[in-house]
User: Fold ABC transporter ATP-binding protein/permease from Paenibacillus soyae.
Amino acid sequence: MAQAINNWQMDQKADLSEPKAKPKYISTFRALSGYIKEHRLTFILFIACTLVAIAAELLQPYLVKIAIDDNLMTGKNDYRSLLVICLIYLGLSVSAFVFAYLQNNLLQKAGQSIVASIRKRLFAHITKLSMSYFDRVPSGSLITHVSSDTEAINQFFNQVVLSIFRDGLTLTFILVLMFQLDAQLTLYCLILLPIIAGIAIAFRSYMRTTYQMARTRLSRLVAFVAENLSGMNIIQIFHQQEEQKKQFREKNDSYFQANIREIRTNVLFNRSFEVLNNLAIAFVTWLGGQAVLGKTLEFGVLYAFITYIRLFFQPINTITQQWNTLQSATVAINRIWSILAIEPEVRDKPLALTVDKDRIAGRLDFNGITFAYPEGTTVIRELDLHVRPGEMVGIVGTTGAGKSSLISLLCRFYDVKEGSILIDGYDIRDIAQHDLHRIVGLVQQEPYLYSGTVLDNVRMFDAGISREAVIRACEFIGADTIIERMKDGYDTRLSERGSGLSAGERQLISFARIIVFAPRILILDEATANLDSHTEQLVQSALERVSVGRTTLVIAHRLSTIMGADRILVMSKGRIVEEGTHEELLRLGGYYDELYKHSQGQQATIEAG
Ligand SMILES: Nc1ncnc2c1ncn2[C@@H]1O[C@H](COP(=O)(O)OP(=O)(O)OP(=O)(O)O)[C@@H](O)[C@H]1O
Assistant:
């Protein structure tokens, strides 16, 4: 695999030297070469079966020629030989069927398993890319890469490779047999070749444009649907259905038009080929018929010739049709390989530290950190923060102050531009990410649940964590009664993103996750926002239990969540502007005091209402 990416990268570098980049067919083959080598035995068997299937197919007209010229036209009445010929014909038909079946299956098997491993590799790679990549690339286009681009590679094997071998070999065999039957007549037929090539080339460039247009419009449509699905609640709440329907209709219509254009071009090309085929047959019948009448050509030879000419056009037509597939596979492979070649911006150092989370006390030091998103303005400025092991720190601040960004840096979704973040004195850039993510746990405002059971979601599909451990964790945070009330208890299947559960229930499951994975440092990003007061109480008491003995950072809009924190930080424009306990900050009479009064006012209004 590494070799395949290497080959591809070298080809890309070589291509840069060319002013006008040509379609990268060679690099496509080089990119796939590693995979093909893995299946070389299957490919050898495929070629062998193809040879036998084609030979069995093409020898059939030759047998009929023998029957006509050596039996029927001689008047020998040799029924026995005729029967033998018919039996051999039958045998050839059966062999052609069996070997064509094997040939198809072998190629399908190799092609499908290559595509499955590319898909697996691509998905695994995407999951390792840094958040900055996902900020830039829309998820819709990534879905296209994993689904339709890999499908284009599948078609490459099952159409292009199949056609190159099957149709290429068929053409060669037909030419050999035709020359063997009558060289002069074959040469006459070959006059048609430049005409066929001319038509194919003329159509080819037009077909390429129509094909690419259809693919581009399809990926726009897919991206649009993906975006809409992920933001369906917003669309409904803002009554955007009509507007989205209009935009969808436009994209759908434009894809429809592109498809129609592509189909028309294909039909025109196929029909032109058929006309050409019939012309060639008329041409051979005219020339060959005269020779038969003049007794310079046997009738059986003419029969075989006409059959071969008919068979000759089919593979040419099929091969030319593969141009589209080859084009799309080339584009798809280049797109996939360009993703595979992307190095995650945040990655482990070659000798990354292995840190056992149980030996971490949980001290945190943010030393003069500065951070800006790629192509963005600075959102954290020379920030210093030192947190004791087991301390609970609440973070509040204006919207866009950089609270979530600070947390993203601690999780190493991004790397700081300046300064450093230390956990127990280890720079987080030196710690293996696998270990870091066991040390630092994150609960977000909208916890992500996967399609799977409650059990799977709590233990994150890690079968090494026992059912009992999951149940204990849920009991600990008080989620057990809620889960037991569900249809199948811990085995209840959750729909995508846990949409069948309330926000509080989802939050409790994510707390149970934390208990199971027991990180030393816990981050809660607005974990109690959007909850009704009863669920908030449940979650709040779960939070208190979860945070015991852990360094905890809580970002909160509701001050009630953090009033009891050991320390509260107020952030503004990427800096810490106030710091202290609840009481200290109230005494300070600054932003926090204002926020508190405001929240008290709101509370009073709610109670009065
Ligand atoms: N992925 C991103 N790419 C570029 N800019 C971003 C990204 N995420 C956040 N920002 C910008 O960084 C700044 C800080 O955002 P951040 O989410 O850290 O603030 P916050 O204090 O958590 O705000 P809120 O309370 O509204 O969630 C904002 O100006 C925001 O627009």
Q: What stands out?
A: The first helix runs from residue 2 to 16. Residues 1-22 have pLDDT under 50 and may be disordered.
